């Protein structure tokens, strides 16, 4: 699985009594599976996220979207957007 999946899984598992390093593989896999679902849910931005993305008119044609735009969109989503 990818780096972003692991980031999400580790954050979701923070309140566990067992550290990530000591967690059984099957439990890590379960967290990773849930992380995949979380990331998939973010595939389509909300209307509010798109609006923020349009405000950030810095556009990187080589990548399709500038990091600042995506970060702004995610921050908007995290702030109940």
Describe the structure.
The chain is mostly helical and 81 residues long. It has two domains: 3-41, no CATH class; 47-78, no CATH class. It has four helices and no strands. It has helices spanning 3-12, 25-41, 47-55, 67-78. Helix 1 crosses helix 2 and helix 3 runs antiparallel to helix 4 (67-78). It is elongated. It starts with a helix and ends with a helix. The mean pLDDT is 80.
Structural class of the helix and strand makeup?
mainly alpha
Kindly state the number of beta strands. 0
Topology as a string of helices (H) and strands (E) = HHHH
Query: Gyration radius, to the nearest Å?
Result: 16 Å
**Major beta-sheet overview:** none
State the end-to-end CA separation: 28 Å
State the helix count.
4
| Uncertain stretches | none
Shape type: elongated
Which percent bin holds the helix content? 55-70%
In what range is the share of β-strand residues? Answer: under 5%
Q: What's the rounded overall pLDDT mean?
A: 80
> How many structural domains can be distinguished in the coordinates?
2
Which structural traits does this protein have?
elongated, 81 residues, single chain
Q: Layout of SSEs?
A:
Elements: H1 3-12, H2 25-41, H3 47-55, H4 67-78
Helix pairs in contact: 1-2, 3-4
């Amino acid at each position: 699985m990818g780096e972003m999946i692991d980031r999400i899984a580790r954050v979701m598992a923070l309140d566990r009594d067992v550290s990530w390093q000591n967690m059984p593989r099957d439990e890590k896999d379960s967290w990773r599976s849930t992380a995949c679902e979380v990331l998939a849910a973010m595939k389509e931005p909300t209307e509010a996220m798109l609006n923020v993305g349009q405000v950030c008119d810095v556009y990187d044609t080589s990548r399709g979207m500038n990091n600042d735009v995506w970060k702004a969109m995610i921050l908007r989503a995290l702030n109940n957007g």
